[in-house]
Design brief:
The chain is of the alpha/beta class and 311 residues long. It has helices at residues 15-21, 38-50, 56-59, 65-70, 105-116, 136-149, 168-181, 198-201, 207-220, 238-250, 277-290; strands at 75-78, 82-83, 93-94, 120-125, 154-158, 186-188, 226-232, 255-260, 294-297.
Length: 311
Amino acid sequence: MQSQNAAHPAEENSPTAQRRTSPLASLPDWLRRPLGKASEISTVQQIIKQRQLHTICEEGRCPNRGECYAQKTATFLLMGPTCTRACGFCQVDKGHAPMALDPDEPRKVAESVSLLGLQYVVLTSVARDDLPDQGAGWFVQTMTAIRQQNPHTQIEVLTPDFWGGQGGADTQAQRVSVIVEAQPACYNHNIETVHRLQGKVRRGAKSDRSLQVLRLVKQLNPAIPTKSGLMLGHGETQEEVIETLQDLRSVGCDRLTIGQYMQPSLEHLPVQRYWHPDEFEALGAIAREMGFSQVRSGPLVRSSYHAGQEA
């Protein structure tokens, strides 16, 4: 549990105060990971930075980025590093005036996929409620560019709920259908937390809207696998988690990730509880019994972690 004791102003910059207030100071041993060798990480970082691209690995401070970079893989974050929403758990920058879209971004992503030799790539994005189509068409443009240069690469998308702006459910359906028509290898949309905690954790999002995204994909093309994920540690109970898994199965969700929420900074929601690895294993077994075809459940599991291995 994150300590709530504040440092005295005269001590706030001291090493002692930094240890006392840092979320990392209270991490259990099973959540601590080595950063990885700089020589193994630099190849991916150079390819990304030279093209002024963004990854959720960096913007979201993913604890697995050292391992993934060593394997020369990354999850591309489309449409800039600034999100129009302000979820209480997410490290990505927030703002109402995101940067303009880079017209060369689809080509740059495709080029990076080629240089990294990726056979399976995950595309995600910030929420862009400022755009008329919320960025759905941008996903498709990037998928098209990747396929032109890398025709054998499979593409998984991890999208927002496409609810922002005007139009409601009908507009959401139109945006989802644009991506479904492009036939991704997997359509991922994270529900993130249980129903009771949606308002606190996912500001601007709701569980029924997320379930509707997954339902729409299956209605439009039942052959496309759907996927969703939860981050535990916000105060949910095991019973609530199981109810959420049942909700996901009710809309035909095929694949599941369950991981531990880790407070990225003192400005974000504090961790209410660190779930033990044995508890994650038990939830994974329950999910498999429910009929999820692929399940990854563990403290360090994230949405795109080893996404292509079973695909």
